[in-house]
TrEMBL record:
Species this chain originates from: Phormidesmis priestleyi ULC007
The protein's name: Putative restriction endonuclease domain-containing protein
Domain spans labelled Putative restriction endonuclease: 12-195
């Protein structure tokens, strides 16, 4: 992830200039180049496929948008672009920007967010945990397929880790999974997934 030295942007300026460019996020007015790699995209694509299968099997009114921005707070110039987002189609009519652009501002519209870890692991494990909990997103997954996160987050020795955060009250509880362990999602109980299944070949 690279911090691009540019002038501070407002949320609306970011949408106008970079809304269609998948590699950028905005954090407190700073443009962030997320520098996605091929293996990173492979992992994200495989996860989206498995989630889509589980949604279809459970006949839920949810979907995974092709692109989507999350605005966690109306008073800050921040726009998150998660690797996978699951939206509840039944409540999108309440979203003030949805009809014009794929921007989500209300936590109740989001069922699940997935971040695939790259060099920005600090943001995924710290700031986004807080932002997504404050929005009220029921589940947040961090897929650290290379074991990049700090020891305080994934333990020692560092190894590939899949963390499921579940919202209880206003805070997340977490469960971690390693290779060969079946992953349990309270949101998608029929999901059959192991970290091994989504690693890049």
């Amino acid at each position: 992830m690279t911090y691009t030295p540019t002038k501070t942007l407002t949320f609306d300026e970011f949408i106008a200039q970079y809304g269609d460019e998948f590699r950028y996020e905005l954090a407190d007015g700073e443009l962030i180049d997320m520098e996605p790699t091929g293996p990173h995209e492979a992992v994200g694509g495989k996860i989206a496929t498995q989630i889509g299968i589980a949604i279809a099997q459970q006949r839920l009114p949810w979907f995974i948008p092709r692109t989507c921005l999350i605005r966690p707070f109306s008073d800050t110039a921040t726009a998150r672009r998660p690797d996978v987002v699951v939206l509840d189609e039944t409540v999108l009519s309440s979203e003030p920007r949805w009809e014009q652009e794929p921007v989500i501002t209300l936590g109740r519209s989001i069922k699940l967010v997935v971040e695939v870890v790259s060099t920005n692991w600090e943001t995924d494990y710290a700031r986004k945990v807080e932002e997504y909990a404050l929005l009220g997103i029921p589940e947040y997954w961090i897929v650290d397929y290379r074991g990049l996160g700090g020891i305080a987050f994934i333990g020692k020795p560092k190894q590939p880790t899949f963390t499921v955060y579940q919202l209880e009250g206003e805070e997340y509880t977490q469960q971690q999974y390693r290779l060969r362990q079946p992953i349990h999602s309270p949101l998608l109980p029929q999901l059959q997934l192991r970290l091994d299944d989504i690693l890049p070949r």
